[in-house]
Design brief:
This protein has 180 residues and is an all-alpha fold. The chain is built from 6 helices and no strands. The chain is rod-shaped, with a radius of gyration of 25 Å.
Amino acid sequence: MVILIVSLSFITILCAIILAFTLTYNRIQDCIIRINEAEVNIDTILRKRFDLLNKSITIIKNTTKTEDEILDIIVKLRTRKLTNFELDRNLYDAINEFNSYKEKYKELKSCEDYLKIEINLFESESEIVALRKYYNDIITDYNKLIKSFPSNLIALIRNYQVKSYFDGNNLEDEKKMFKL
């Protein structure tokens, strides 16, 4: 009788541990799926911004009749493989340069194609801000799971690592700031 009670207790505890492991593992997997989804959405918006800026080079050159290098940041990015973090920082610099041409070349203020690109870039800015916030919210949930008990045991077993936030900062600056 005692052996039966001990066996049932052991089986109950084992089932509870397996259930807790499964539920925690599924929560981590849910975060990973949402992170991947957010990364795809961010990538789509960044590629859209890149394409708009790339298209604007010809428009600016044709409208202003200039032979100067226009948006050389974009030209250099065409052949480079970048992370979304790096691409976002480079596109931000390129958008600032793009906006400066309107003051430098007054004829762009009346160019319909330039103005359409400007509007699309402005609209994409609000989209990327929303996606950054969504991504960072998911990363917060994920990192909490990775760092807290008992989910940190699963993270250790599966070799899950803490992920960086998408805040536009240089990752090297983050390492220096937190002395990682």
